Amino acid sequence: MKLLIVGGVAGGASAAARGRRLSEQAEIVLFEKGPYISYANCGLPYYIGHVIEDRNKLLVFTPEQMKKRFNIDVRTSTEVLRIERQEKRVEVKKIDTGELYMESYDKLILSPGAEPIKPLIPGIDGTKVMTLRSVQDMDKIRVAVDAGARKVTVIGGGYIGLEMVDNLSNFGLEIHLVEMLPRIMPLIDPEIAFIVQEHIKSRGVQLHLGKPVQGFKEAEGRLVVRLHRYEEIECNFAVLSVGVKPSTSLAVKAGLDIGPTGGIKVDDYMRTSDPDIYAVGDAVEVKDFITSRPALIPLAGLANRQGRIAADNVFGRASKFRGAQGTVIVKVFDLTVASTGASEIKLKEAGIAYEKIYLHPTNHAQFYPGASDIRFKLLYSPEDGRILGAQIVGVDGVDKRVDVIAMAIQAGMTVFDLEECELAYAPQLGAAKDPVNMAGFVASNILKGDCNTLFASDVPVDEQNPNILVLDVRTSKEYQQGTVPGAVNIPLDELRARIGELPKDKKIYCFCRAGLRSYIANRILKQNGLEVYNISGGYLTFCSSRPEMAYCDEIVPKKVK
Amino acid sequence: MKLLIVGGVAGGASAAARGRRLSEQAEIVLFEKGPYISYANCGLPYYIGHVIEDRNKLLVFTPEQMKKRFNIDVRTSTEVLRIERQEKRVEVKKIDTGELYMESYDKLILSPGAEPIKPLIPGIDGTKVMTLRSVQDMDKIRVAVDAGARKVTVIGGGYIGLEMVDNLSNFGLEIHLVEMLPRIMPLIDPEIAFIVQEHIKSRGVQLHLGKPVQGFKEAEGRLVVRLHRYEEIECNFAVLSVGVKPSTSLAVKAGLDIGPTGGIKVDDYMRTSDPDIYAVGDAVEVKDFITSRPALIPLAGLANRQGRIAADNVFGRASKFRGAQGTVIVKVFDLTVASTGASEIKLKEAGIAYEKIYLHPTNHAQFYPGASDIRFKLLYSPEDGRILGAQIVGVDGVDKRVDVIAMAIQAGMTVFDLEECELAYAPQLGAAKDPVNMAGFVASNILKGDCNTLFASDVPVDEQNPNILVLDVRTSKEYQQGTVPGAVNIPLDELRARIGELPKDKKIYCFCRAGLRSYIANRILKQNGLEVYNISGGYLTFCSSRPEMAYCDEIVPKKVK
């Protein structure tokens, strides 16, 4: 068996190592266009931010180590130019010398990765408009930072953009974050993204939302980023992080099938339309685990797994990829933001029926010092309660809860299963009723019909809607500090006594701070024959969903006093 | 409906609140023997340790609050003396006045909890031998600490004992931990407990293992704890934490069925042998989720859930308890120790076939600063790979991994599913191949026959066993710092070149530090026709499993340099 692998980072390196473990006899050649293989892509922003100080730590395996340990013939600075599928060989170019040669294969694994999207904007190819994908990209940005940059523009409010903002902030720079859409983080839902926006604004980052970049120009050693409507940002340099696209040129030239998303089309065994060619990693189109639609989900974990699966199949072991949930997490300043499964936006696009809830628990028992807020959105099927997705924001304990939900999604579990989860509880690490249990309780109560639920978006802007009474069951002190426009206040603990004050002929939209007190209020009112609805997530979710109507300074999770 | 509830802490308070949410009309009376209801039992050690400074924070709901919010008739300092099942009423005693009265019920929920086990040891009832179960117990111990105690003996090395050690250490006391068994933490396996032992020893705690207390006596205001063999500890006071037993006297007097473990017998609906009486919490016997055997698993989360389930059933909603996994976690000094599902000991006792692996990953990507070690034991079925249990020790990220495994157990997932988990990865929070994925890989490799595995216990004490060669594939530097007695050293990266040095007629027991390099070595040797076995968990697990044979100072997880 002679296996050629194109691309030496996550997917390719994993395939090579797995291949060798499965066969000592195989000839395995790994081609990498760049000078480095198997580097820690996800660490690049942190080297720029001087959080990771030792650059060598990012280089997980050198070519020499891959040779020694796995007997892999690693050829860096070597580009595979084309595939001759009939002859089962590739044409290869040594980048340093320009030398060309052919290399034959029995099986070929493509792991070319993805490349930064560079929109057709005047000036985008200037040296002061940088992207971050490779170690060389990282080195360039770090040099620019270390040269004493005072002002930097980050273009694109996705994960990489936010990691850049977070790392650049270590140097006290003036940071501008420009995003074409009216909000950051396009892969999560806007009311969750709003929480993150508020946080980064509070840290002095200047947000330019809904502003596509019109052009770049250099003047007197500075970069001018021109935004919509004559607005300009003059800065030392810009980091362009508006997403990546699959690197498919080699596959396209070879006539391999490309999927509707633009990624290389593969079957469940990671095999392309040519049975002797596999493809893995950011370049391939995967099946979305929730929607079953083709999707591009460029994540290191998936690339590693696919590399392993492709190698298994190359060496005669049937091994299948189950599709991708797209579990992602990013830390930006004090907040961690995570998501798994489908967002509400994606479910809508896919036409999948869903219900949603919001809750605002603390990461661990409140009586133990240092507890902090969590904002938790759960999406599930109204038919059977199957969990479809979650988005979680908080200071601590976010990664744990998103991982627990990721497991639940993988296993096809329901909100009823979440009620029953037995998670580890010690006061500094959790709660006897963990946020995940609470999510299960809230959603189950809705599915069982115990609590009619509606959302911030259902609250009429017109405060005078005669058929609706908006009821705030928080304390009068909380009420006075800000409420939903037009809401009347009856604190929960007075509700039974004052129930006569409520009209029998109106719908009552009930809320509290987070949703727990209003749930109890709902139960009281419903059992007393009133038509009552709970505004999911209470005032906190209302304020992040409809910031034009109400604002509270508790939206952003923080340590509880 | 008139519902009486006996016991106002976790299970009882949950049942009361849930009952009210289900029925505004019901009359609900909650009896509690002590002065407090709904307090945070798990917080008690931390108030003693001055970690929690505000005592009121431990009192989650006062009787007044329960009345206001849930319209519950709470009667504290009130003991239910007996149940007249025929008449469906209970006899009640006001503790302060001695007044007796009868109270009738339609349904009765018992949540009497558990009480500290007090072995029949001379002097155990002295005032300087304290237990920790209630708020009053806590107050007493805190007074004793704050009075300037210099030396304290903790008896019992279980969870509460360790939390006491941890909290007492905040005052620079001399702490003695006495345990009857030859090791601490009887609910987890000894080689994992050994790691914790080493850690607490390194923090100056004096361990007295395998030493049952023979007696207590007071002398000159001090307590003398007499151990086995004339050994005595003179101290200011002792905390006795040798476990709890279900409080069943009321149920026993009423003739309700008691299970073989000594807990109140209930069905899946939390109903006792009397259809109008339910029982929940630490007093009941539950079904072990893994072994299906009856078990006592006194945990707050379970009590809460059972209270909710009992209330559901009382109010006409069929609601079932699925059994208990027993997920537990404890923090002691720098370490967090957690467990879910069955231990190896428990599986052996239950006669359930199992396989096990050990791994030693870091909590997050090693290239990001602050990574720390994790020690991870996974138990699974050799037939289908179903996960049976896990034990995890580390500095950070332990709670997350045990929760992920808890979900996998709940869902009936296998080690093959663990390979596929899509967990959140950012460099400061995880790894592209998370420890959970790694556990899946290791176990799957074994089940697929890629790697023959054996354990520290299989290594012969006699170094001269002529049929076995113990092979250390770490670097020669690592080898020189300590190895398995009799092991020969061929570093992994030299193995292909030096394979001729290995005997074809011997079994090769191969190991490295943690198991990854030796797995690669196994693949190399196996494919070259040698009979090779991997010692699971490598030198680290060897040293904690057989400390009499080898020692290394890396056993205890710490931050990676």
In short:
Chain A is built from 15 helices and 30 strands. Chain A is of the alpha/beta class. Chain A folds into 4 domains: 183 residues, 3-Layer(bba) Sandwich (FAD/NAD(P)-binding domain); 114 residues, FAD/NAD(P)-binding domain; 114 residues, FAD/NAD(P)-binding domain (3-Layer(bba) Sandwich), CATH 3.50.50; 93 residues, Oxidized Rhodanese, domain 1.
Overview of the molecule:
The structure is a homodimer of 561-residue chains. In chain A, 26% of the residues lie in helices and 24% in strands. Chain A is of the alpha/beta class and 561 residues long. The first copy, chain A, has 4 domains: 2-114 and 245-314, FAD/NAD(P)-binding domain (3-Layer(bba) Sandwich); 129-242, FAD/NAD(P)-binding domain (3-Layer(bba) Sandwich), CATH 3.50.50.60; 334-447, FAD/NAD(P)-binding domain (3-Layer(bba) Sandwich); 453-545, Oxidized Rhodanese, domain 1, CATH 3.40.250.10. In chain A, the strands form 8 sheets. In chain A, strands 3-2-1-7-18 form a 5-stranded parallel β-sheet. In chain A, strand 19 and strand 20 (294-295) form a beta hairpin. In chain A, helix 1 packs parallel to helix 8 (300-314). The longest helix of chain A is centred in the middle third of the chain and has 15 residues, at 300-314. The mean pLDDT of chain A is 96. The interface between A and B is large, with 84 and 85 residues.
